[in-house]
């Protein structure tokens, strides 16, 4: 209960994405996000494979986790540097101040001037008032509808819908469907996911300079086709279909990264962006089970993999949204050029 009150893992991931966005140029963000996704995947797999509770027991495992978390907090406080402010903006202010002082030096000096003591005492901050400030909530609600030029508002609304559909399918696959990555093929799934992250991050994004929307289209297409292959594999007795499906599913860990990269490029400098995406994820828990559970209760006894076909209905609009974003961003780039 206590970690949930302070945001838990969604808040932590939100802060990581925000920090990377602030400290990384737009051309390198997809690569950095891909590296982060690989480390998150490795952490999840290691926790499943090692199973420390079975080896050390509950008490020792909790003690190890506490020490790791304390080390992480100390690392964040003392070693992670705060993002630097824009140097060009500070230089502009310095030059303006120099000009102002030069002009003031040319003015005539008045003799009878009373000395006035200026109070430079900073205003006292009220932490509770800032924490529960309702105006911040109002600004957060207005974020999706904020006016952005060159189709920026339309693109941002489409990305919110795409993010919601993508996160929803990820949640359903992990909670209500037997996760095929945790069977005898899970190590192969881990290897193919790392290969897919390297292909997208290093080759497609960094070397070939593919746009984020184009990479998102490729990821959505491969993921949708892989789900169909898993349905076919369920009717076969050999493992060849499972291997083929997992090869096609090599980009699945990167499904939400193109959406966040596009959104960060449109809302450059807006610190509330990843907070908004972070709050969307818990909302999925309340809405998607009410859609999928009735379907799952009907098909679970007859054909379990029919759930994947139902999930395909959410991948189709995701691909269409990414196609629309691709053309809108091209039009936006042409207008800004």
TrEMBL record:
GO terms for cellular component: membrane. It is found in: Membrane. It comes from the Eukaryota. Keywords: Membrane, Transmembrane, Transmembrane helix. GO terms for molecular function: transmembrane transporter activity. The keyword Transmembrane helix applies. Its main location: membrane. It is a multi-pass membrane protein. The chain crosses the membrane at residues 30-50, 56-80, 152-170, 190-208, 215-233, 275-300, 306-329. The keyword Methyltransferase does not apply. This is Uncharacterized protein LOC117575262. The gene is LOC117575262.
